[in-house]
Protein backbone atom coordinates (compact mmCIF):
# COMPACT_ATOMS: atom_id res chain seq x y z
CA UNK A 1 0.00 0.00 0.00
CA UNK A 2 1.32 3.44 -0.93
CA UNK A 3 0.62 6.03 1.74
CA UNK A 4 2.24 9.00 0.02
CA UNK A 5 1.72 11.39 -2.84
CA UNK A 6 4.71 11.64 -5.16
CA UNK A 7 5.58 14.49 -7.52
CA UNK A 8 7.87 14.09 -10.49
CA UNK A 9 9.49 16.70 -12.73
CA UNK A 10 8.43 16.26 -16.36
CA UNK A 11 9.63 15.19 -18.86
CA UNK A 12 12.35 13.16 -17.13
CA UNK A 13 10.27 11.76 -14.26
CA UNK A 14 12.74 12.87 -11.59
CA UNK A 15 11.37 12.59 -8.05
CA UNK A 16 11.35 16.07 -6.58
CA UNK A 17 9.11 15.79 -3.52
CA UNK A 18 7.32 13.15 -1.44
CA UNK A 19 4.26 14.25 0.50
CA UNK A 20 3.56 12.13 3.55
CA UNK A 21 0.70 12.25 6.01
CA UNK A 22 -1.99 9.80 5.01
CA UNK A 23 -2.31 6.62 7.06
CA UNK A 24 -3.65 4.52 4.19
CA UNK A 25 -3.55 4.48 0.39
CA UNK A 26 -4.32 7.65 -1.55
CA UNK A 27 -7.33 7.22 -3.85
CA UNK A 28 -7.65 10.61 -5.49
CA UNK A 29 -5.86 13.92 -6.04
CA UNK A 30 -6.74 17.23 -7.70
CA UNK A 31 -4.87 20.43 -8.55
CA UNK A 32 -6.45 23.84 -8.10
CA UNK A 33 -5.66 24.52 -11.77
CA UNK A 34 -7.03 21.24 -13.15
CA UNK A 35 -10.06 22.78 -14.81
CA UNK A 36 -8.26 25.60 -16.60
CA UNK A 37 -5.53 23.17 -17.72
CA UNK A 38 -8.24 20.89 -19.09
CA UNK A 39 -10.04 23.62 -21.02
CA UNK A 40 -7.01 25.58 -22.26
CA UNK A 41 -7.99 28.44 -24.53
CA UNK A 42 -11.67 27.46 -24.47
CA UNK A 43 -13.72 30.01 -22.53
CA UNK A 44 -16.86 28.42 -21.02
CA UNK A 45 -18.47 31.84 -20.55
CA UNK A 46 -18.47 32.26 -24.34
CA UNK A 47 -19.95 28.82 -25.07
CA UNK A 48 -23.18 28.36 -27.02
CA UNK A 49 -25.63 25.46 -27.13
CA UNK A 50 -24.40 24.62 -30.63
CA UNK A 51 -20.65 23.81 -30.52
CA UNK A 52 -18.40 26.26 -32.35
CA UNK A 53 -14.89 25.75 -33.67
CA UNK A 54 -12.25 27.90 -32.00
CA UNK A 55 -10.66 30.56 -34.16
CA UNK A 56 -7.16 32.01 -34.06
CA UNK A 57 -3.61 30.91 -34.72
CA UNK A 58 -1.84 28.36 -32.53
CA UNK A 59 0.19 31.17 -30.95
CA UNK A 60 -2.98 33.15 -30.17
CA UNK A 61 -4.65 30.12 -28.63
CA UNK A 62 -1.56 29.39 -26.52
CA UNK A 63 -1.52 32.99 -25.33
CA UNK A 64 -5.20 32.88 -24.42
CA UNK A 65 -4.71 29.61 -22.55
CA UNK A 66 -1.80 31.13 -20.62
CA UNK A 67 -3.87 34.20 -19.73
CA UNK A 68 -6.70 32.01 -18.43
CA UNK A 69 -4.25 29.92 -16.40
CA UNK A 70 -2.58 33.00 -14.87
CA UNK A 71 -5.96 34.47 -13.94
CA UNK A 72 -7.15 31.29 -12.22
CA UNK A 73 -3.87 30.65 -10.44
CA UNK A 74 -3.56 34.23 -9.21
CA UNK A 75 -0.55 35.32 -7.18
CA UNK A 76 -0.30 32.21 -5.02
CA UNK A 77 1.07 28.75 -5.78
CA UNK A 78 -0.98 25.87 -7.11
CA UNK A 79 -2.71 23.84 -4.42
CA UNK A 80 -3.11 20.07 -4.36
CA UNK A 81 -5.78 18.17 -2.44
CA UNK A 82 -5.58 14.44 -1.76
CA UNK A 83 -8.19 11.98 -0.48
CA UNK A 84 -7.54 8.64 1.14
CA UNK A 85 -8.87 5.37 2.48
CA UNK A 86 -8.03 6.80 5.92
CA UNK A 87 -11.18 9.00 5.63
CA UNK A 88 -9.13 12.23 5.48
CA UNK A 89 -8.12 14.87 2.95
CA UNK A 90 -4.91 16.87 2.94
CA UNK A 91 -4.39 20.27 1.33
CA UNK A 92 -0.87 20.93 0.06
CA UNK A 93 1.25 23.58 -1.64
CA UNK A 94 3.55 21.05 -3.30
CA UNK A 95 5.80 23.55 -5.06
CA UNK A 96 6.64 25.27 -1.76
CA UNK A 97 6.41 22.81 1.13
CA UNK A 98 6.24 19.09 1.80
CA UNK A 99 4.16 19.72 4.92
CA UNK A 100 0.37 19.86 4.47
CA UNK A 101 -1.41 23.18 4.68
CA UNK A 102 -4.42 21.52 6.33
CA UNK A 103 -5.65 18.10 7.41
CA UNK A 104 -9.36 17.90 6.60
CA UNK A 105 -11.44 15.47 8.65
CA UNK A 106 -15.14 14.63 8.87
CA UNK A 107 -15.82 11.83 6.42
CA UNK A 108 -16.79 8.52 8.01
CA UNK A 109 -15.63 6.28 5.16
CA UNK A 110 -13.08 6.18 2.35
CA UNK A 111 -12.92 9.08 -0.08
CA UNK A 112 -13.52 8.30 -3.74
CA UNK A 113 -12.90 11.65 -5.40
CA UNK A 114 -11.80 15.21 -4.67
CA UNK A 115 -12.27 18.14 -7.03
CA UNK A 116 -11.62 21.89 -7.02
CA UNK A 117 -14.37 24.07 -8.45
CA UNK A 118 -13.32 25.76 -11.72
CA UNK A 119 -12.92 29.09 -9.88
CA UNK A 120 -10.80 27.23 -7.23
CA UNK A 121 -12.87 28.66 -4.36
CA UNK A 122 -14.36 25.33 -3.20
CA UNK A 123 -13.12 21.76 -2.84
CA UNK A 124 -15.72 18.98 -3.08
CA UNK A 125 -15.13 15.45 -1.80
CA UNK A 126 -17.22 12.33 -2.45
CA UNK A 127 -17.22 9.40 -0.06
CA UNK A 128 -18.52 5.94 0.71
CA UNK A 129 -20.25 7.56 3.71
CA UNK A 130 -23.03 8.66 1.30
CA UNK A 131 -22.12 12.35 1.53
CA UNK A 132 -20.37 15.08 -0.42
CA UNK A 133 -18.48 17.61 1.67
CA UNK A 134 -17.51 21.13 0.64
CA UNK A 135 -14.34 22.83 1.86
CA UNK A 136 -12.86 26.30 1.44
CA UNK A 137 -10.45 26.06 -1.49
CA UNK A 138 -7.57 28.09 -0.03
CA UNK A 139 -7.61 27.08 3.62
CA UNK A 140 -9.29 23.66 3.64
CA UNK A 141 -11.84 24.88 6.20
CA UNK A 142 -14.99 22.74 6.35
CA UNK A 143 -18.07 24.42 4.86
CA UNK A 144 -20.95 21.94 4.74
CA UNK A 145 -22.12 18.42 3.92
CA UNK A 146 -24.49 17.59 1.07
CA UNK A 147 -26.71 14.66 2.01
CA UNK A 148 -29.37 12.91 -0.05
CA UNK A 149 -27.77 9.84 -1.52
CA UNK A 150 -28.66 6.61 0.25
CA UNK A 151 -25.50 4.77 -0.76
CA UNK A 152 -21.85 5.47 -1.59
CA UNK A 153 -21.03 8.50 -3.75
CA UNK A 154 -18.58 7.50 -6.47
CA UNK A 155 -17.95 10.59 -8.60
CA UNK A 156 -18.63 14.31 -8.77
CA UNK A 157 -18.27 17.02 -11.41
CA UNK A 158 -18.56 20.81 -11.36
CA UNK A 159 -20.41 22.99 -13.84
CA UNK A 160 -18.21 25.46 -15.71
CA UNK A 161 -19.51 28.42 -13.67
CA UNK A 162 -18.84 26.67 -10.32
CA UNK A 163 -22.48 27.13 -9.31
CA UNK A 164 -23.60 23.52 -9.58
CA UNK A 165 -22.15 20.15 -8.65
CA UNK A 166 -23.38 16.78 -9.94
CA UNK A 167 -22.83 13.53 -8.06
CA UNK A 168 -23.20 9.89 -9.12
CA UNK A 169 -23.91 7.16 -6.60
CA UNK A 170 -24.27 3.49 -5.87
CA UNK A 171 -27.97 4.25 -5.29
CA UNK A 172 -28.42 4.50 -9.11
CA UNK A 173 -29.16 8.25 -9.11
CA UNK A 174 -27.40 11.45 -10.03
CA UNK A 175 -28.06 14.56 -8.00
CA UNK A 176 -27.35 18.18 -8.86
CA UNK A 177 -26.47 20.46 -5.95
CA UNK A 178 -26.54 24.26 -5.71
CA UNK A 179 -23.15 25.40 -4.38
CA UNK A 180 -24.55 28.71 -3.13
CA UNK A 181 -27.56 27.44 -1.19
CA UNK A 182 -25.82 24.14 -0.32
CA UNK A 183 -29.04 22.28 -1.17
CA UNK A 184 -30.28 19.72 -3.68
CA UNK A 185 -31.33 21.40 -6.93
CA UNK A 186 -32.33 18.47 -9.15
CA UNK A 187 -32.70 14.71 -8.71
CA UNK A 188 -31.84 12.68 -11.82
CA UNK A 189 -33.13 9.11 -11.71
CA UNK A 190 -32.84 6.99 -14.85
CA UNK A 191 -30.01 4.52 -14.43
CA UNK A 192 -31.06 1.00 -13.52
CA UNK A 193 -28.02 0.32 -11.34
CA UNK A 194 -24.99 1.96 -9.73
CA UNK A 195 -23.59 5.13 -11.36
CA UNK A 196 -19.83 4.78 -11.57
CA UNK A 197 -18.85 7.79 -13.70
CA UNK A 198 -20.07 11.31 -14.32
CA UNK A 199 -18.70 14.44 -15.98
CA UNK A 200 -19.89 17.91 -16.95
CA UNK A 201 -19.08 19.22 -20.43
CA UNK A 202 -16.79 22.30 -20.44
CA UNK A 203 -19.48 24.34 -22.21
CA UNK A 204 -21.76 23.73 -19.22
CA UNK A 205 -24.62 22.42 -21.34
CA UNK A 206 -24.56 18.68 -20.70
CA UNK A 207 -23.80 16.06 -18.07
CA UNK A 208 -22.71 12.55 -19.02
CA UNK A 209 -23.04 9.52 -16.75
CA UNK A 210 -22.13 5.85 -17.00
CA UNK A 211 -23.19 2.96 -14.82
CA UNK A 212 -23.40 -0.69 -14.02
CA UNK A 213 -26.50 -0.90 -16.25
CA UNK A 214 -24.08 -0.72 -19.24
CA UNK A 215 -25.57 2.61 -20.36
CA UNK A 216 -24.19 6.07 -20.97
CA UNK A 217 -26.75 8.81 -20.42
CA UNK A 218 -26.56 12.42 -21.56
CA UNK A 219 -28.46 15.06 -19.58
CA UNK A 220 -29.23 18.57 -20.82
CA UNK A 221 -28.97 21.49 -18.42
How does this structure look, described?
The protein is mostly beta strands. It is built from 2 helices and 17 strands. It is globular. The mean pLDDT is 90.
Please specify the SSE layout and strand pairing.
Layout: E1 4-9, E2 14-20, E3 26-31, H1 34-39, H2 58-73, E4 80-84, E5 89-92, E6 102-104, E7 111-116, E8 122-127, E9 131-136, E10 142-147, E11 153-158, E12 164-169, E13 174-178, E14 183-188, E15 195-200, E16 206-211, E17 216-220
Shape: globular
Q: Based on DSSP secondary structure assignment, what is the total number of beta strands?
A: 17
Query: Gap between N and C termini, in Å?
Result: 41 Å
Mean model confidence by pLDDT? 90
Radius of gyration: 18 Å
| Count, helices | 2
Strand content: 35-45%
Task: Specify the structural class.
Answer: mainly beta
Strand order of the largest sheet: 3-4-5-6
> Tell me about the biggest sheet?
4 strands, antiparallel
Secondary-structure element sequence?
Answer: EEEHHEEEEEEEEEEEEEE
Poorly predicted runs of 5 or more residues? none
As a percent range, the share of helical residues equals under 10%
Q: What attributes does this structure have?
A:
single chain, 221 residues, mainly beta, 4-stranded antiparallel beta sheet, 10% helix
Quick synopsis:
This protein has 221 residues and is mostly beta strands.
